[in-house]
Amino acid sequence: MCLLPILVSALIWGIGQMLRDPRTRVLFGRMGVIYVLGLLIPMVVTIAVAMVLQPGASLGEEAAAALGGQMAESEASGGDKGLLGFVESLVPHNVFEALGTGQFISIVFFCALVGLALGVVR
C-alpha cells in the first residue's frame, strides 16, 4: 500500500530534478544511450543463443502439436498482441485504474513522462 506513492513520487521528482540541474542535464543524453544499449545488448545475445542452440528443436511431434495448439489458443483469445500491443499497454488508459490494479509498467511510463514534463517546464 505504501509502495505506489513512494514509487510515483520518487520517479517524478528524480527525473524532474535531473533535468533542472545543469550538471545532470548534460548526462541525461548519455544515460539514455546507455539505457538503450542495456536493452539491445541482451536482446542480441539472446537471439544469437536461441539461433545457435535452437531450443525446442528436439521436441517430439506430440509436444510440438500441443505447444502449437496453446499458442493458437493464446492468439485467438487476444493474449499475444505483439510489439504494438506491448507499446499500447505502456500507456495507461486511466492512471488511477493502473495504480489500483498494480500495472507497474504503465505507472513507471506515466511517471517518467510527468517527470520529463516537470523537468522541462521552468
Describe it for me?
- This protein is mainly α and 122 residues long.
- The chain has one domain (9-54, 80-120).
- Helix content is 81%, strand content 0%.
Number of domains: 1
Kindly provide the radius of gyration, computed on alpha-carbon positions and rounded to a whole number of angstroms.
20 Å
The helix/strand order is HHHHHH
What's the overall average pLDDT, rounded? 85
List keywords for this structure.
single chain, flat, mainly alpha, 0% strand, 122 residues
Short description:
The chain has 122 residues and is mainly α. The chain has 6 helices and no strands.
Which SSEs are present, and which pair or pack?
Layout: H1 3-20, H2 22-53, H3 61-76, H4 82-90, H5 95-101, H6 104-120
Helix pairs in contact: 1-6
